[in-house]
Prior knowledge:
- The chain is an alpha+beta fold.
- Helix content is 54%, strand content 18%.
- Strands 1-2-3 form a 3-stranded mixed β-sheet, sandwiched between helices. It has a 3-stranded antiparallel β-sheet with strand order 4-6-5, covered by helices on one side.
Amino acid sequence: MAQDEEKTIDQLNEEADIAADYLEGLLDIVDYEGDIEMGVRNNRPTVQIVADDDTDIKHLIGRNGEVVDALQQLTRLAVQQKTGERSHLIVDVDGYLKRKRQRLHDIALDAIDEVHETGEPVDLKPMNSFERKIVHDVVREEGMKSRSHGEEPHRYVTVYFKASVAEETEDEDEA
């Protein structure tokens, strides 16, 4: 299947089923109790692990989400092995990604406020591509501009005002 072709809902549900089976097997191995919820969101299969025990769930999230990120990568590989196709599956543990998105949304809004107050661009701390995308989306929704700079793993976002029409014209004249 070509990368730009959209998968059918049946294909996405199949990926979620494969992922759920894989994650249930992992939970059995580590002897963690929990439920697996599956779905499709934004044309991506999603699997959420909801554990019964707060202590166990913290181990599945890890420091700064490192464990849930690793679970997602391993689960994507398991799905690819079964289907023969790359998956854009999202794995979440106990709402961690939802909380992370909200924190990033708040960080982006704080940066926007600072740009409004000072008129100067604001550099944010280094982020991974998932985090940067959320920030870029919020900034765009608020009518401002952002740009990523640097090399992984130190790539970061700068938030700034959109150039006015007069400034854009001046920039073009200087080029």
